[in-house]
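Researcher: Let's continue the batch. This sequence belongs to Ferric uptake regulation protein, and it's 144 residues. Same format as the previous ones, please.
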Amino acid sequence: MTPEQLLEQAKKTCQKRGARFTLAREQVFTLLTKHDGAIGAYELLDQLKAVDPAAKPATIYRALDFLGQQGFVHKIESINAFVLCHHFGDCNHPVQLLICDQCGHVEEIQSNDFDSALRAMATNKGFTISHQIIEAHGACQACQ
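Model: Same format as before. Here are the C-alpha coordinates for Ferric uptake regulation protein:
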Protein backbone atom coordinates (compact mmCIF):
# COMPACT_ATOMS: atom_id res chain seq x y z
CA MET A 1 0.00 0.00 0.00
CA THR A 2 1.11 3.55 -0.63
CA PRO A 3 1.52 6.02 2.26
CA GLU A 4 -1.64 7.79 1.07
CA GLN A 5 -3.65 4.55 1.10
CA LEU A 6 -2.37 3.67 4.56
CA LEU A 7 -3.33 7.13 5.81
CA GLU A 8 -6.84 6.79 4.39
CA GLN A 9 -7.21 3.35 5.97
CA ALA A 10 -6.07 4.74 9.35
CA LYS A 11 -8.51 7.67 9.11
CA LYS A 12 -11.39 5.30 8.34
CA THR A 13 -10.40 3.03 11.21
CA CYS A 14 -10.34 5.98 13.63
CA GLN A 15 -13.67 7.21 12.34
CA LYS A 16 -15.24 3.77 12.92
CA ARG A 17 -13.81 3.63 16.43
CA GLY A 18 -14.74 7.21 17.30
CA ALA A 19 -11.08 8.08 17.87
CA ARG A 20 -9.75 11.57 17.02
CA PHE A 21 -7.06 11.48 14.36
CA THR A 22 -5.60 14.94 15.01
CA LEU A 23 -3.22 16.73 12.67
CA ALA A 24 -0.19 15.87 14.84
CA ARG A 25 -1.18 12.18 14.91
CA GLU A 26 -1.69 12.24 11.15
CA GLN A 27 1.71 13.86 10.60
CA VAL A 28 3.52 11.29 12.76
CA PHE A 29 1.62 8.44 11.11
CA THR A 30 2.57 9.79 7.67
CA LEU A 31 6.24 9.95 8.67
CA LEU A 32 6.06 6.33 9.81
CA THR A 33 4.53 5.23 6.48
CA LYS A 34 7.56 6.61 4.67
CA HIS A 35 10.07 4.73 6.83
CA ASP A 36 10.91 1.12 6.01
CA GLY A 37 12.48 0.07 9.29
CA ALA A 38 12.26 1.02 12.91
CA ILE A 39 12.64 4.65 13.87
CA GLY A 40 13.23 6.32 17.21
CA ALA A 41 11.01 8.99 18.70
CA TYR A 42 13.66 11.71 18.49
CA GLU A 43 14.42 10.91 14.86
CA LEU A 44 10.67 11.23 14.21
CA LEU A 45 10.69 14.52 16.10
CA ASP A 46 13.46 15.86 13.87
CA GLN A 47 11.44 14.92 10.79
CA LEU A 48 8.23 16.36 12.26
CA LYS A 49 9.95 19.69 12.92
CA ALA A 50 10.35 20.08 9.13
CA VAL A 51 6.54 20.43 8.86
CA ASP A 52 5.81 21.70 12.39
CA PRO A 53 8.71 23.72 13.82
CA ALA A 54 6.88 24.02 17.17
CA ALA A 55 6.80 20.22 17.69
CA LYS A 56 8.14 19.05 21.05
CA PRO A 57 9.03 15.60 22.42
CA ALA A 58 5.61 15.46 24.12
CA THR A 59 3.99 15.89 20.69
CA ILE A 60 5.74 12.78 19.39
CA TYR A 61 5.18 10.69 22.49
CA ARG A 62 1.46 11.54 22.70
CA ALA A 63 1.03 10.75 19.00
CA LEU A 64 2.96 7.47 19.28
CA ASP A 65 0.95 6.49 22.36
CA PHE A 66 -2.30 7.07 20.46
CA LEU A 67 -1.05 5.25 17.35
CA GLY A 68 0.04 2.33 19.52
CA GLN A 69 -3.35 2.18 21.28
CA GLN A 70 -5.04 2.07 17.88
CA GLY A 71 -2.72 -0.73 16.74
CA PHE A 72 -1.13 1.37 14.01
CA VAL A 73 2.43 1.07 15.37
CA HIS A 74 4.41 -1.38 17.45
CA LYS A 75 7.08 -0.33 19.92
CA ILE A 76 10.27 -2.34 19.64
CA GLU A 77 11.39 -2.37 23.24
CA SER A 78 14.87 -3.81 22.65
CA ILE A 79 15.94 -0.85 20.50
CA ASN A 80 13.45 1.75 21.81
CA ALA A 81 11.99 2.39 18.37
CA PHE A 82 8.69 2.20 16.53
CA VAL A 83 7.49 0.47 13.38
CA LEU A 84 4.27 0.81 11.41
CA CYS A 85 1.76 -2.06 11.61
CA HIS A 86 -0.31 -2.90 8.54
CA HIS A 87 -2.97 -4.93 10.43
CA PHE A 88 -5.19 -2.05 11.52
CA GLY A 89 -8.32 -4.15 11.91
CA ASP A 90 -6.82 -6.38 14.58
CA CYS A 91 -4.88 -4.24 17.03
CA ASN A 92 -4.60 -7.09 19.54
CA HIS A 93 -3.04 -9.62 17.18
CA PRO A 94 0.09 -11.44 18.32
CA VAL A 95 3.17 -9.68 17.00
CA GLN A 96 6.44 -11.28 16.00
CA LEU A 97 9.14 -9.01 14.62
CA LEU A 98 12.31 -9.95 12.75
CA ILE A 99 14.83 -7.14 13.27
CA CYS A 100 17.98 -6.88 11.17
CA ASP A 101 20.82 -5.64 13.36
CA GLN A 102 22.83 -4.59 10.32
CA CYS A 103 20.45 -2.51 8.14
CA GLY A 104 17.61 -1.92 10.61
CA HIS A 105 14.90 -3.50 8.45
CA VAL A 106 11.96 -4.81 10.48
CA GLU A 107 9.65 -7.51 9.17
CA GLU A 108 6.41 -8.31 10.96
CA ILE A 109 5.39 -11.94 10.76
CA GLN A 110 2.47 -13.83 12.20
CA SER A 111 2.60 -17.42 13.25
CA ASN A 112 -0.53 -18.78 14.83
CA ASP A 113 1.40 -21.95 15.74
CA PHE A 114 3.96 -19.91 17.68
CA ASP A 115 1.21 -17.92 19.39
CA SER A 116 -0.68 -21.09 20.33
CA ALA A 117 2.46 -22.72 21.73
CA LEU A 118 3.34 -19.64 23.78
CA ARG A 119 -0.19 -19.33 25.15
CA ALA A 120 -0.26 -23.03 26.04
CA MET A 121 3.03 -22.73 27.94
CA ALA A 122 1.76 -19.61 29.72
CA THR A 123 -1.51 -21.33 30.66
CA ASN A 124 0.45 -24.29 32.07
CA LYS A 125 2.24 -21.80 34.35
CA GLY A 126 -1.05 -20.15 35.38
CA PHE A 127 -0.25 -17.04 33.37
CA THR A 128 -2.64 -15.16 31.10
CA ILE A 129 -1.11 -13.25 28.18
CA SER A 130 -2.81 -9.92 27.52
CA HIS A 131 -0.45 -8.61 24.86
CA GLN A 132 2.40 -10.17 22.93
CA ILE A 133 5.33 -8.74 20.99
CA ILE A 134 8.17 -11.14 20.24
CA GLU A 135 11.40 -9.61 18.95
CA ALA A 136 14.00 -11.68 17.11
CA HIS A 137 17.32 -10.05 16.17
CA GLY A 138 19.62 -11.22 13.41
CA ALA A 139 20.46 -10.52 9.77
CA CYS A 140 17.99 -10.15 6.93
CA GLN A 141 18.47 -11.92 3.60
CA ALA A 142 20.00 -8.82 2.00
CA CYS A 143 22.61 -8.48 4.76
CA GLN A 144 23.67 -12.14 4.97
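Researcher: Any comment?
Model: The CA atoms of residues 84 and 104 lie 14 Å apart.
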